[in-house]
Amino acid sequence: MRLATLIVVLLTLLHAGCSSTSSRIGRLYQALQTDVAERPAGAFPDEALMARHAARAKEVREIVDAGALKTTKEKFQAAVLLVETNDLSNLKLAEQLANEATLGGEHLGPRVAAEAIDKQLMVQHQPQRYGTQYEWVVALGEWRLYPLDLKTTDAERALVGVPPLAELYAGERKLNSARTIH
What is the DSSP letter of 85? Predict the structure, then answer.
């Protein structure tokens, strides 16, 4: 009887350890969603928020480096977490994981991959491809769509779930009007 109890306890602990990757990614993803929900539209990312993004990305990298991402959902959530940083290696990994999630059937995977691509270009001071990134222009006191590669078409944007250029500029206006309210 004691052996059976010991086996049950060991299996429970083993199961908890095996399911920890999914719950870790899920916990990190939920924390990001909470941050996003609590931040007013048009607000600047503050130092505390950037520190939380960096800490979450570090933990995601540890999980990825351990080879512990297995499901499409985990890969997608990891990509979303990594795209919140400005670290080029994190952004490249976010693109890769988003593409893998897309192949696994995640319909938002192409959008996250597009964000990772645009942010990589932005970090390298090059025009973005799809139009997912905005920047604060001090001289204007407003948000602006980060410069675009004008060769990208609205049809290409649609393939990755990004709205047409006219809607991106409307988003810019909305972002600035929301900022004046707060």
Answer: S
